[in-house]
Amino acid sequence: MFRATAPVRPPAPAGADGPSGPATATATAVLPRLVRAGVHTPPGPGAPYEPEGAREDFYRELGALYGAAFDRGQFADSGRRTSVELAYGALDALGPLTAEECPEVVVVAYAAPDFDHSELVASCVKRRLPGEPLSFALSDQGVLAPFSALRVAVEYARRCGWSRLLLLVVDQGTQPFPLPATGPAAVHGDAAVALLIHWDGGDAAPAGMAQGRPEPALFADWDGSAALVAGSGLSEGGAELPAHDGPLIRVAAGQPATGGWAALLAAADRDRPVVVADYDRERDFLAYCTLDTGELGVR
Amino acid sequence: MTSITAVSSCLPDTIPIARFQKELQLTDVQLRRYQRFYGLAEVCRDPAATETELLLRAATKLVELRGQEQRVKYVLQARTMPAPLPYPMTSLRPLQVELGLEHAAGFVVSHHACASGLLALDLAGTLLAADPDPDALALVLAGEKAATAQTQSIPDVTVMGEGTVAFLVSADRTGSDRMLGYATRTHTQFGDEFIMGDAAAKEFQDLYGPGLCEVIGAALEEARCGLDELALVLPHNVNRLSWIGVCKTLGLPLDKVFLDLIGETGHCFCADPFINLQKATELGRLRPGDRYLMTSVGLGATFAAMVFEH
User: Considering B170, B200, B226, which residue would you say is the last residue of a domain?
Assistant: First the structure.
Protein backbone atom coordinates (compact mmCIF):
# COMPACT_ATOMS: atom_id res chain seq x y z
CA MET A 1 0.00 0.00 0.00
CA PHE A 2 1.10 3.54 -0.68
CA ARG A 3 0.12 5.84 2.16
CA ALA A 4 1.28 9.33 2.92
CA THR A 5 0.49 12.69 4.36
CA ALA A 6 0.35 15.60 1.96
CA PRO A 7 3.64 16.67 0.40
CA VAL A 8 5.05 19.79 2.00
CA ARG A 9 7.24 22.41 0.43
CA PRO A 10 10.61 22.46 2.14
CA PRO A 11 11.24 25.62 4.16
CA ALA A 12 13.54 28.28 2.81
CA PRO A 13 17.18 27.69 3.84
CA ALA A 14 18.20 29.36 7.09
CA GLY A 15 19.03 32.99 6.52
CA ALA A 16 17.58 32.99 3.02
CA ASP A 17 15.17 35.73 2.10
CA GLY A 18 13.49 33.82 -0.71
CA PRO A 19 10.32 31.76 -0.66
CA SER A 20 10.05 28.20 0.58
CA GLY A 21 10.92 25.48 -1.87
CA PRO A 22 13.57 23.03 -2.92
CA ALA A 23 17.20 24.02 -2.80
CA THR A 24 18.53 25.08 -6.17
CA ALA A 25 20.00 22.36 -8.30
CA THR A 26 23.35 24.11 -8.47
CA ALA A 27 23.64 24.00 -4.71
CA THR A 28 23.13 20.25 -4.49
CA ALA A 29 23.58 18.90 -8.04
CA VAL A 30 22.31 15.37 -7.67
CA LEU A 31 21.89 13.15 -10.71
CA PRO A 32 19.75 10.03 -10.83
CA ARG A 33 21.94 6.95 -11.39
CA LEU A 34 20.98 4.43 -14.06
CA VAL A 35 22.11 1.12 -12.58
CA ARG A 36 20.42 -1.52 -14.75
CA ALA A 37 18.52 -1.55 -18.01
CA GLY A 38 16.71 -3.99 -20.25
CA VAL A 39 15.47 -3.58 -23.81
CA HIS A 40 12.91 -5.74 -25.61
CA THR A 41 12.31 -5.35 -29.34
CA PRO A 42 10.45 -8.40 -30.69
CA PRO A 43 10.61 -8.43 -34.48
CA GLY A 44 8.04 -9.11 -37.15
CA PRO A 45 4.32 -9.82 -37.22
CA GLY A 46 2.50 -11.71 -34.54
CA ALA A 47 0.54 -14.95 -34.70
CA PRO A 48 -2.10 -15.38 -37.45
CA TYR A 49 -5.02 -13.10 -36.72
CA GLU A 50 -8.30 -14.64 -35.68
CA PRO A 51 -10.97 -11.92 -35.56
CA GLU A 52 -12.65 -11.42 -32.19
CA GLY A 53 -16.13 -9.96 -32.58
CA ALA A 54 -16.32 -8.25 -29.20
CA ARG A 55 -12.93 -6.62 -29.59
CA GLU A 56 -13.70 -5.36 -33.11
CA ASP A 57 -17.09 -4.06 -31.98
CA PHE A 58 -15.35 -2.14 -29.22
CA TYR A 59 -12.96 -0.53 -31.69
CA ARG A 60 -15.78 0.37 -34.07
CA GLU A 61 -17.88 1.92 -31.32
CA LEU A 62 -14.93 3.83 -29.90
CA GLY A 63 -13.80 5.15 -33.27
CA ALA A 64 -17.27 6.18 -34.45
CA LEU A 65 -17.44 9.23 -32.19
CA TYR A 66 -14.11 10.48 -33.54
CA GLY A 67 -14.55 9.59 -37.22
CA ALA A 68 -11.91 6.87 -37.05
CA ALA A 69 -12.58 3.50 -38.68
CA PHE A 70 -11.22 0.19 -37.40
CA ASP A 71 -8.43 -0.85 -39.76
CA ARG A 72 -8.57 -4.63 -39.70
CA GLY A 73 -5.85 -5.06 -42.32
CA GLN A 74 -3.34 -2.95 -40.42
CA PHE A 75 -4.34 -4.63 -37.18
CA ALA A 76 -3.94 -8.15 -38.60
CA ASP A 77 -0.54 -7.32 -40.10
CA SER A 78 0.80 -5.97 -36.80
CA GLY A 79 2.63 -7.69 -33.99
CA ARG A 80 -0.42 -7.78 -31.72
CA ARG A 81 1.83 -8.16 -28.71
CA THR A 82 0.10 -6.43 -25.84
CA SER A 83 1.90 -3.71 -23.92
CA VAL A 84 1.92 -6.05 -20.93
CA GLU A 85 3.83 -8.63 -23.01
CA LEU A 86 6.26 -5.96 -24.16
CA ALA A 87 6.77 -4.68 -20.63
CA TYR A 88 7.33 -8.21 -19.36
CA GLY A 89 9.96 -8.68 -22.09
CA ALA A 90 11.81 -5.59 -20.89
CA LEU A 91 11.58 -6.79 -17.30
CA ASP A 92 13.01 -10.16 -18.33
CA ALA A 93 15.85 -8.35 -20.09
CA LEU A 94 16.43 -6.32 -16.93
CA GLY A 95 16.90 -9.56 -15.03
CA PRO A 96 15.53 -10.75 -11.71
CA LEU A 97 15.21 -8.32 -8.86
CA THR A 98 15.56 -9.27 -5.22
CA ALA A 99 13.35 -7.71 -2.59
CA GLU A 100 16.24 -5.37 -1.73
CA GLU A 101 16.52 -4.28 -5.35
CA CYS A 102 12.81 -3.85 -5.95
CA PRO A 103 11.78 -0.37 -7.06
CA GLU A 104 9.66 1.66 -4.68
CA VAL A 105 7.93 3.47 -7.52
CA VAL A 106 7.18 2.26 -11.05
CA VAL A 107 6.05 4.66 -13.78
CA VAL A 108 4.96 3.28 -17.14
CA ALA A 109 5.30 5.83 -19.95
CA TYR A 110 4.00 5.57 -23.48
CA ALA A 111 2.90 7.57 -26.49
CA ALA A 112 0.78 4.94 -28.29
CA PRO A 113 -1.66 3.12 -25.99
CA ASP A 114 -2.15 -0.61 -25.70
CA PHE A 115 -4.62 -2.04 -28.19
CA ASP A 116 -5.84 -4.40 -25.46
CA HIS A 117 -8.21 -2.36 -23.32
CA SER A 118 -8.70 -5.14 -20.79
CA GLU A 119 -5.21 -4.96 -19.28
CA LEU A 120 -3.43 -2.36 -17.17
CA VAL A 121 0.33 -2.49 -17.64
CA ALA A 122 1.15 -0.76 -14.36
CA SER A 123 -0.89 -3.27 -12.37
CA CYS A 124 0.49 -6.29 -14.23
CA VAL A 125 4.09 -5.09 -13.91
CA LYS A 126 3.65 -4.58 -10.21
CA ARG A 127 2.54 -8.21 -9.98
CA ARG A 128 5.86 -9.31 -11.48
CA LEU A 129 7.91 -7.42 -8.93
CA PRO A 130 8.78 -8.22 -5.35
CA GLY A 131 7.66 -5.66 -2.81
CA GLU A 132 4.80 -3.19 -2.97
CA PRO A 133 5.81 -0.32 -5.27
CA LEU A 134 3.53 2.57 -6.13
CA SER A 135 2.81 1.88 -9.78
CA PHE A 136 0.95 3.93 -12.37
CA ALA A 137 1.11 5.18 -15.96
CA LEU A 138 1.73 8.49 -17.68
CA SER A 139 0.87 9.20 -21.33
CA ASP A 140 -0.63 11.51 -23.96
CA GLN A 141 2.45 13.67 -24.11
CA GLY A 142 4.14 12.16 -27.17
CA VAL A 143 7.93 11.92 -26.97
CA LEU A 144 7.87 13.89 -23.71
CA ALA A 145 6.01 11.32 -21.62
CA PRO A 146 9.11 9.41 -20.41
CA PHE A 147 10.74 12.67 -19.31
CA SER A 148 7.69 13.57 -17.24
CA ALA A 149 7.58 10.01 -15.89
CA LEU A 150 11.17 10.21 -14.69
CA ARG A 151 10.59 13.61 -13.12
CA VAL A 152 7.50 12.36 -11.31
CA ALA A 153 9.33 9.25 -10.10
CA VAL A 154 12.20 11.34 -8.73
CA GLU A 155 9.80 13.72 -7.01
CA TYR A 156 7.96 10.84 -5.33
CA ALA A 157 11.37 9.51 -4.23
CA ARG A 158 12.30 12.90 -2.78
CA ARG A 159 8.99 13.21 -1.00
CA CYS A 160 8.88 9.67 0.37
CA GLY A 161 12.57 9.04 1.08
CA TRP A 162 12.84 6.40 -1.61
CA SER A 163 15.91 5.51 -3.65
CA ARG A 164 14.86 2.90 -6.25
CA LEU A 165 12.78 3.87 -9.31
CA LEU A 166 11.71 1.89 -12.33
CA LEU A 167 10.92 3.71 -15.56
CA LEU A 168 9.17 1.43 -18.04
CA VAL A 169 8.77 2.90 -21.51
CA VAL A 170 6.66 1.15 -24.15
CA ASP A 171 6.08 1.69 -27.87
CA GLN A 172 2.97 -0.19 -28.98
CA GLY A 173 3.12 -0.75 -32.74
CA THR A 174 -0.30 -2.36 -33.00
CA GLN A 175 -3.16 0.11 -33.26
CA PRO A 176 -6.76 -0.51 -34.30
CA PHE A 177 -6.99 2.81 -36.15
CA PRO A 178 -4.85 4.03 -39.05
CA LEU A 179 -1.38 4.94 -37.83
CA PRO A 180 0.50 7.87 -39.30
CA ALA A 181 3.27 6.48 -41.50
CA THR A 182 5.61 9.37 -40.82
CA GLY A 183 6.01 12.19 -38.33
CA PRO A 184 6.42 12.24 -34.57
CA ALA A 185 3.46 9.95 -33.86
CA ALA A 186 4.55 7.15 -36.23
CA VAL A 187 5.29 3.88 -34.47
CA HIS A 188 7.38 1.41 -36.47
CA GLY A 189 7.20 -1.83 -34.49
CA ASP A 190 7.11 -2.83 -30.85
CA ALA A 191 9.66 -1.95 -28.18
CA ALA A 192 9.95 -1.65 -24.42
CA VAL A 193 12.74 -0.35 -22.22
CA ALA A 194 13.08 -0.93 -18.48
CA LEU A 195 15.40 1.43 -16.59
CA LEU A 196 16.23 0.81 -12.94
CA ILE A 197 17.35 4.10 -11.50
CA HIS A 198 18.73 4.98 -8.09
CA TRP A 199 18.09 8.32 -6.50
CA ASP A 200 20.66 9.18 -3.81
CA GLY A 201 19.66 12.78 -3.42
CA GLY A 202 17.41 12.49 -0.43
CA ASP A 203 15.34 15.65 -0.42
CA ALA A 204 17.79 17.53 -2.65
CA ALA A 205 16.55 18.85 -5.98
CA PRO A 206 17.41 16.76 -9.04
CA ALA A 207 19.97 18.29 -11.35
CA GLY A 208 20.03 18.38 -15.12
CA MET A 209 16.30 18.13 -15.79
CA ALA A 210 13.90 20.58 -17.39
CA GLN A 211 10.87 20.73 -19.64
CA GLY A 212 9.29 23.69 -21.40
CA ARG A 213 9.51 26.06 -24.33
CA PRO A 214 12.99 25.91 -25.90
CA GLU A 215 14.17 29.26 -24.55
CA PRO A 216 17.62 30.04 -23.11
CA ALA A 217 16.37 29.88 -19.51
CA LEU A 218 15.30 26.27 -20.00
CA PHE A 219 18.93 25.24 -20.40
CA ALA A 220 20.23 26.70 -17.15
CA ASP A 221 20.97 23.19 -15.92
CA TRP A 222 22.33 21.86 -19.23
CA ASP A 223 25.65 20.01 -19.14
CA GLY A 224 27.40 20.71 -22.44
CA SER A 225 30.17 18.23 -21.67
CA ALA A 226 27.86 15.26 -21.22
CA ALA A 227 27.23 12.59 -23.82
CA LEU A 228 24.03 13.49 -25.65
CA VAL A 229 21.17 11.41 -26.98
CA ALA A 230 19.11 13.64 -29.28
CA GLY A 231 15.64 12.20 -29.73
CA SER A 232 13.82 11.96 -33.02
CA GLY A 233 11.93 15.20 -32.46
CA LEU A 234 15.18 17.15 -32.48
CA SER A 235 16.32 15.71 -35.78
CA GLU A 236 13.23 17.20 -37.43
CA GLY A 237 14.28 20.74 -36.52
CA GLY A 238 12.28 23.42 -34.79
CA ALA A 239 14.48 23.65 -31.73
CA GLU A 240 18.18 24.08 -31.18
CA LEU A 241 20.21 22.75 -28.30
CA PRO A 242 22.94 24.75 -26.59
CA ALA A 243 26.59 24.24 -27.51
CA HIS A 244 27.65 20.70 -26.86
CA ASP A 245 31.07 19.01 -27.04
CA GLY A 246 30.36 15.49 -25.77
CA PRO A 247 29.63 12.44 -27.93
CA LEU A 248 26.30 12.61 -29.76
CA ILE A 249 23.79 9.95 -30.79
CA ARG A 250 20.88 10.95 -32.99
CA VAL A 251 17.71 8.88 -32.81
CA ALA A 252 15.64 8.07 -35.90
CA ALA A 253 11.86 8.49 -35.95
CA GLY A 254 9.48 5.58 -35.46
CA GLN A 255 9.88 4.82 -31.74
CA PRO A 256 8.41 7.94 -30.15
CA ALA A 257 8.58 6.79 -26.55
CA THR A 258 11.45 4.30 -26.41
CA GLY A 259 13.81 5.63 -29.10
CA GLY A 260 15.92 7.95 -26.99
CA TRP A 261 15.85 5.72 -23.95
CA ALA A 262 17.02 2.65 -25.83
CA ALA A 263 19.80 4.75 -27.37
CA LEU A 264 20.76 5.89 -23.88
CA LEU A 265 22.18 2.44 -23.26
CA ALA A 266 24.57 2.78 -26.20
CA ALA A 267 25.62 6.18 -24.93
CA ALA A 268 26.33 5.01 -21.39
CA ASP A 269 29.66 6.41 -20.27
CA ARG A 270 31.73 5.79 -17.15
CA ASP A 271 33.43 9.15 -17.29
CA ARG A 272 30.66 11.58 -18.04
CA PRO A 273 26.90 11.83 -17.56
CA VAL A 274 24.45 11.32 -20.40
CA VAL A 275 21.77 13.82 -21.39
CA VAL A 276 18.66 12.54 -23.14
CA ALA A 277 16.75 15.29 -24.93
CA ASP A 278 13.75 15.44 -27.23
CA TYR A 279 11.46 18.00 -28.76
CA ASP A 280 7.74 17.95 -29.53
CA ARG A 281 7.09 20.26 -32.45
CA GLU A 282 3.31 20.36 -32.06
CA ARG A 283 3.55 21.40 -28.43
CA ASP A 284 6.74 23.43 -28.97
CA PHE A 285 8.06 21.78 -25.85
CA LEU A 286 11.54 20.48 -25.21
CA ALA A 287 12.58 18.14 -22.42
CA TYR A 288 15.94 16.91 -21.27
CA CYS A 289 17.31 14.98 -18.35
CA THR A 290 20.77 14.01 -17.23
CA LEU A 291 21.67 10.62 -15.84
CA ASP A 292 24.78 9.14 -14.30
CA THR A 293 25.31 5.90 -16.25
CA GLY A 294 28.75 4.99 -14.92
CA GLU A 295 27.68 1.74 -13.31
CA LEU A 296 25.19 0.60 -15.92
CA GLY A 297 25.02 -3.10 -16.56
CA VAL A 298 23.06 -3.56 -19.78
CA ARG A 299 21.37 -6.90 -20.41
CA MET B 1 0.61 21.14 1.64
CA THR B 2 -1.57 20.08 -1.26
CA SER B 3 -4.87 21.88 -1.51
CA ILE B 4 -7.74 22.20 -3.94
CA THR B 5 -8.28 25.90 -4.51
CA ALA B 6 -11.27 25.75 -6.85
CA VAL B 7 -13.48 23.12 -8.47
CA SER B 8 -16.09 23.14 -11.21
CA SER B 9 -18.12 20.41 -12.83
CA CYS B 10 -20.20 19.80 -15.91
CA LEU B 11 -23.15 17.44 -15.71
CA PRO B 12 -24.86 16.75 -19.06
CA ASP B 13 -28.61 16.29 -19.13
CA THR B 14 -29.91 13.17 -17.46
CA ILE B 15 -31.35 10.16 -19.26
CA PRO B 16 -33.38 7.45 -17.48
CA ILE B 17 -31.39 4.22 -17.37
CA ALA B 18 -34.54 2.44 -18.55
CA ARG B 19 -33.75 3.88 -21.96
CA PHE B 20 -30.51 1.86 -21.96
CA GLN B 21 -32.14 -1.38 -20.81
CA LYS B 22 -31.55 -3.19 -24.09
CA GLU B 23 -27.98 -1.92 -24.54
CA LEU B 24 -27.15 -2.88 -20.97
CA GLN B 25 -28.84 -6.27 -21.46
CA LEU B 26 -30.88 -5.84 -18.29
CA THR B 27 -33.95 -7.92 -17.57
CA ASP B 28 -36.95 -6.13 -16.08
CA VAL B 29 -36.05 -7.53 -12.67
CA GLN B 30 -32.46 -6.32 -12.97
CA LEU B 31 -33.62 -2.88 -14.09
CA ARG B 32 -35.87 -2.55 -11.05
CA ARG B 33 -32.98 -3.64 -8.82
CA TYR B 34 -30.77 -0.93 -10.32
CA GLN B 35 -33.49 1.66 -9.78
CA ARG B 36 -34.76 0.67 -6.35
CA PHE B 37 -31.74 -0.74 -4.52
CA TYR B 38 -28.74 0.71 -6.34
CA GLY B 39 -30.36 4.14 -6.54
CA LEU B 40 -29.49 4.44 -10.23
CA ALA B 41 -32.54 6.14 -11.72
CA GLU B 42 -30.86 8.31 -14.33
CA VAL B 43 -27.40 9.01 -15.68
CA CYS B 44 -25.99 12.21 -17.15
CA ARG B 45 -24.84 11.80 -20.73
CA ASP B 46 -24.37 13.74 -23.92
CA PRO B 47 -24.07 11.13 -26.68
CA ALA B 48 -22.99 13.69 -29.27
CA ALA B 49 -20.18 15.25 -27.23
CA THR B 50 -16.59 14.08 -27.32
CA GLU B 51 -14.41 13.61 -24.26
CA THR B 52 -12.58 16.80 -25.15
CA GLU B 53 -15.81 18.81 -25.32
CA LEU B 54 -17.07 17.45 -22.00
CA LEU B 55 -13.81 18.26 -20.24
CA LEU B 56 -13.72 21.73 -21.79
CA ARG B 57 -17.20 22.49 -20.48
CA ALA B 58 -16.05 21.80 -16.92
CA ALA B 59 -12.82 23.76 -17.36
CA THR B 60 -14.50 26.85 -18.82
CA LYS B 61 -16.78 26.99 -15.77
CA LEU B 62 -13.73 27.25 -13.54
CA VAL B 63 -13.82 31.02 -13.20
CA GLU B 64 -10.91 30.97 -10.76
CA LEU B 65 -8.67 29.90 -13.64
CA ARG B 66 -9.23 33.13 -15.52
CA GLY B 67 -6.32 35.49 -15.15
CA GLN B 68 -4.28 32.79 -13.44
CA GLU B 69 -3.29 30.87 -16.56
CA GLN B 70 0.39 31.76 -16.34
CA ARG B 71 0.56 30.27 -12.83
CA VAL B 72 -0.55 26.87 -14.12
CA LYS B 73 2.59 24.73 -14.61
CA TYR B 74 0.92 21.35 -14.98
CA VAL B 75 -2.27 20.11 -16.63
CA LEU B 76 -3.11 16.57 -15.59
CA GLN B 77 -5.92 14.47 -16.98
CA ALA B 78 -6.96 11.59 -14.73
CA ARG B 79 -8.22 8.72 -16.83
CA THR B 80 -9.98 5.44 -16.22
CA MET B 81 -9.92 3.81 -19.65
CA PRO B 82 -6.50 2.83 -20.97
CA ALA B 83 -7.19 4.01 -24.54
CA PRO B 84 -10.46 5.94 -24.96
CA LEU B 85 -9.41 7.95 -28.04
CA PRO B 86 -7.97 6.72 -31.34
CA TYR B 87 -4.19 7.28 -31.26
CA PRO B 88 -2.68 9.83 -31.73
CA MET B 89 -5.71 11.91 -30.71
CA THR B 90 -5.62 13.33 -27.23
CA SER B 91 -7.92 15.66 -25.34
CA LEU B 92 -5.12 17.46 -23.56
CA ARG B 93 -3.53 19.25 -26.48
CA PRO B 94 -6.72 20.98 -27.74
CA LEU B 95 -7.79 21.70 -24.18
CA GLN B 96 -4.51 23.42 -23.38
CA VAL B 97 -4.79 25.51 -26.54
CA GLU B 98 -8.38 26.48 -25.81
CA LEU B 99 -7.64 27.36 -22.18
CA GLY B 100 -4.44 29.33 -22.87
CA LEU B 101 -2.32 26.74 -21.07
CA GLU B 102 0.07 25.72 -23.83
CA HIS B 103 3.01 26.73 -21.65
CA ALA B 104 2.14 24.03 -19.07
CA ALA B 105 3.36 20.44 -19.07
CA GLY B 106 0.28 18.31 -19.78
CA PHE B 107 -0.09 14.55 -19.46
CA VAL B 108 -2.54 11.79 -18.60
CA VAL B 109 -2.28 9.91 -15.29
CA SER B 110 -3.82 6.45 -15.41
CA HIS B 111 -3.76 2.72 -14.63
CA HIS B 112 -5.44 3.22 -11.28
CA ALA B 113 -8.64 3.24 -13.35
CA CYS B 114 -11.35 5.24 -11.56
CA ALA B 115 -8.97 5.81 -8.63
CA SER B 116 -6.64 7.76 -10.96
CA GLY B 117 -8.33 11.03 -9.96
CA LEU B 118 -7.04 10.85 -6.40
CA LEU B 119 -3.64 9.76 -7.72
CA ALA B 120 -3.55 12.75 -10.09
CA LEU B 121 -4.28 15.10 -7.21
CA ASP B 122 -1.52 13.56 -5.11
CA LEU B 123 0.87 13.65 -8.06
CA ALA B 124 0.04 17.29 -8.75
CA GLY B 125 0.75 18.13 -5.13
CA THR B 126 4.04 16.25 -5.29
CA LEU B 127 5.19 18.24 -8.32
CA LEU B 128 4.02 21.55 -6.91
CA ALA B 129 5.76 21.00 -3.58
CA ALA B 130 9.01 20.64 -5.52
CA ASP B 131 8.41 23.51 -7.92
CA PRO B 132 10.70 26.52 -7.53
CA ASP B 133 7.67 28.80 -7.88
CA PRO B 134 5.61 28.76 -4.65
CA ASP B 135 2.64 30.23 -6.51
CA ALA B 136 2.55 27.50 -9.16
CA LEU B 137 -0.76 25.74 -9.81
CA ALA B 138 -1.88 22.51 -11.45
CA LEU B 139 -5.14 22.01 -13.31
CA VAL B 140 -6.59 18.52 -13.00
CA LEU B 141 -9.34 17.26 -15.31
CA ALA B 142 -11.43 14.09 -15.05
CA GLY B 143 -14.44 12.45 -16.64
CA GLU B 144 -14.92 10.31 -19.75
CA LYS B 145 -17.23 9.03 -22.43
CA ALA B 146 -19.50 6.04 -22.00
CA ALA B 147 -19.35 5.48 -25.73
CA THR B 148 -19.07 1.72 -26.12
CA ALA B 149 -21.07 -1.25 -24.89
CA GLN B 150 -18.20 -2.26 -22.62
CA THR B 151 -17.77 1.19 -21.09
CA GLN B 152 -21.47 1.92 -20.51
CA SER B 153 -21.67 -0.01 -17.31
CA ILE B 154 -20.01 -2.35 -14.86
CA PRO B 155 -22.39 -5.30 -14.94
CA ASP B 156 -24.43 -5.72 -11.77
CA VAL B 157 -22.62 -2.78 -10.16
CA THR B 158 -23.32 0.54 -11.86
CA VAL B 159 -24.13 2.53 -15.01
CA MET B 160 -21.61 5.06 -16.24
CA GLY B 161 -22.26 8.79 -16.56
CA GLU B 162 -20.40 11.46 -18.48
CA GLY B 163 -20.04 14.18 -15.85
CA THR B 164 -16.69 15.95 -15.88
CA VAL B 165 -14.73 18.03 -13.43
CA ALA B 166 -11.90 20.55 -13.41
CA PHE B 167 -10.04 21.70 -10.33
CA LEU B 168 -7.03 23.78 -9.44
CA VAL B 169 -4.38 22.43 -7.10
CA SER B 170 -1.86 24.40 -5.11
CA ALA B 171 0.98 23.58 -2.73
CA ASP B 172 -0.17 26.51 -0.63
CA ARG B 173 -1.96 25.41 2.54
CA THR B 174 -4.34 28.36 2.37
CA GLY B 175 -6.38 26.64 -0.35
CA SER B 176 -10.02 25.93 0.47
CA ASP B 177 -9.63 22.15 0.76
CA ARG B 178 -6.38 20.84 2.22
CA MET B 179 -5.31 17.25 1.70
CA LEU B 180 -4.24 15.59 4.94
CA GLY B 181 -3.76 11.93 4.10
CA TYR B 182 -3.86 9.51 1.17
CA ALA B 183 -3.78 5.75 0.87
CA THR B 184 -4.01 3.54 -2.19
CA ARG B 185 -3.48 -0.14 -2.88
CA THR B 186 -3.52 -1.91 -6.23
CA HIS B 187 -4.58 -5.56 -6.06
CA THR B 188 -2.63 -6.90 -8.99
CA GLN B 189 -4.50 -10.15 -9.52
CA PHE B 190 -7.02 -8.07 -11.48
CA GLY B 191 -4.46 -6.30 -13.68
CA ASP B 192 -5.36 -8.30 -16.78
CA GLU B 193 -9.07 -8.39 -15.97
CA PHE B 194 -9.98 -4.75 -16.40
CA ILE B 195 -13.06 -6.14 -18.11
CA MET B 196 -13.88 -8.83 -15.58
CA GLY B 197 -15.14 -12.31 -16.23
CA ASP B 198 -17.52 -14.01 -13.81
CA ALA B 199 -14.84 -15.52 -11.56
CA ALA B 200 -12.90 -12.27 -11.30
CA ALA B 201 -16.12 -10.34 -10.66
CA LYS B 202 -16.93 -12.66 -7.76
CA GLU B 203 -13.43 -12.30 -6.32
CA PHE B 204 -13.61 -8.52 -6.72
CA GLN B 205 -16.98 -8.42 -5.01
CA ASP B 206 -15.54 -10.31 -2.05
CA LEU B 207 -12.56 -7.96 -1.89
CA TYR B 208 -14.55 -4.77 -2.30
CA GLY B 209 -15.59 -4.09 1.31
CA PRO B 210 -12.33 -5.11 3.00
CA GLY B 211 -10.24 -3.41 0.32
CA LEU B 212 -12.09 -0.13 0.65
CA CYS B 213 -12.14 -0.20 4.44
CA GLU B 214 -8.39 -0.87 4.48
CA VAL B 215 -7.46 2.29 2.54
CA ILE B 216 -10.01 4.38 4.42
CA GLY B 217 -8.40 3.33 7.69
CA ALA B 218 -4.91 4.03 6.38
CA ALA B 219 -5.81 7.46 4.99
CA LEU B 220 -7.43 8.41 8.31
CA GLU B 221 -4.31 7.30 10.16
CA GLU B 222 -2.10 9.37 7.88
CA ALA B 223 -4.36 12.36 8.50
CA ARG B 224 -4.43 11.66 12.26
CA CYS B 225 -8.18 11.81 11.99
CA GLY B 226 -10.77 9.58 13.59
CA LEU B 227 -13.70 8.17 11.65
CA ASP B 228 -16.06 9.98 13.98
CA GLU B 229 -14.37 13.29 13.16
CA LEU B 230 -15.50 13.07 9.54
CA ALA B 231 -18.24 15.47 8.63
CA LEU B 232 -18.85 13.89 5.25
CA VAL B 233 -17.73 11.19 2.85
CA LEU B 234 -17.54 12.13 -0.83
CA PRO B 235 -17.68 8.76 -2.53
CA HIS B 236 -17.34 7.25 -5.96
CA ASN B 237 -20.94 7.09 -7.18
CA VAL B 238 -21.20 3.43 -8.11
CA ASN B 239 -24.37 2.59 -6.23
CA ARG B 240 -26.16 3.16 -2.94
CA LEU B 241 -26.28 -0.48 -1.89
CA SER B 242 -22.51 -0.94 -1.71
CA TRP B 243 -22.24 1.99 0.70
CA ILE B 244 -24.77 0.45 3.05
CA GLY B 245 -22.43 -2.53 3.42
CA VAL B 246 -19.27 -0.47 3.78
CA CYS B 247 -20.88 1.86 6.34
CA LYS B 248 -22.01 -1.12 8.38
CA THR B 249 -18.49 -2.54 8.41
CA LEU B 250 -16.92 0.79 9.30
CA GLY B 251 -19.55 1.82 11.83
CA LEU B 252 -20.18 4.97 9.81
CA PRO B 253 -23.69 6.47 9.68
CA LEU B 254 -24.98 6.25 6.11
CA ASP B 255 -26.18 9.84 6.25
CA LYS B 256 -22.56 10.96 6.40
CA VAL B 257 -22.04 9.62 2.87
CA PHE B 258 -22.95 12.13 0.17
CA LEU B 259 -25.10 9.97 -2.06
CA ASP B 260 -27.27 12.78 -3.39
CA LEU B 261 -26.02 12.56 -6.97
CA ILE B 262 -25.99 8.82 -7.60
CA GLY B 263 -29.54 8.90 -8.92
CA GLU B 264 -28.83 11.59 -11.49
CA THR B 265 -25.20 11.20 -12.50
CA GLY B 266 -24.37 7.51 -12.41
CA HIS B 267 -20.70 6.64 -11.99
CA CYS B 268 -18.61 9.29 -13.77
CA PHE B 269 -15.27 7.46 -13.95
CA CYS B 270 -12.53 9.39 -12.04
CA ALA B 271 -14.64 12.49 -11.57
CA ASP B 272 -17.15 11.33 -8.91
CA PRO B 273 -15.60 12.52 -5.63
CA PHE B 274 -14.72 15.90 -7.11
CA ILE B 275 -18.18 16.38 -8.62
CA ASN B 276 -19.47 15.57 -5.15
CA LEU B 277 -17.10 18.13 -3.61
CA GLN B 278 -18.40 20.83 -5.92
CA LYS B 279 -22.01 19.95 -5.18
CA ALA B 280 -21.59 19.47 -1.42
CA THR B 281 -19.85 22.83 -1.19
CA GLU B 282 -22.61 24.47 -3.22
CA LEU B 283 -25.21 22.96 -0.90
CA GLY B 284 -23.38 24.15 2.21
CA ARG B 285 -22.74 20.62 3.42
CA LEU B 286 -19.16 21.48 4.36
CA ARG B 287 -18.28 24.14 6.93
CA PRO B 288 -14.85 25.66 7.53
CA GLY B 289 -12.74 23.22 9.52
CA ASP B 290 -14.80 20.19 8.56
CA ARG B 291 -12.81 17.08 7.78
CA TYR B 292 -14.05 14.86 5.02
CA LEU B 293 -13.06 11.77 3.08
CA MET B 294 -12.94 11.07 -0.64
CA THR B 295 -12.96 7.50 -1.92
CA SER B 296 -12.49 5.81 -5.27
CA VAL B 297 -12.22 2.26 -6.50
CA GLY B 298 -10.83 1.38 -9.89
CA LEU B 299 -11.10 -1.86 -11.78
CA GLY B 300 -7.79 -3.48 -12.24
CA ALA B 301 -8.01 -3.11 -9.13
CA THR B 302 -7.07 -0.05 -7.10
CA PHE B 303 -8.69 1.16 -3.89
CA ALA B 304 -7.99 4.71 -2.73
CA ALA B 305 -9.03 7.13 0.00
CA MET B 306 -8.01 10.70 0.77
CA VAL B 307 -8.76 12.88 3.81
CA PHE B 308 -9.23 16.65 3.57
CA GLU B 309 -9.94 19.64 5.75
CA HIS B 310 -12.36 22.20 4.35
Answer: B170
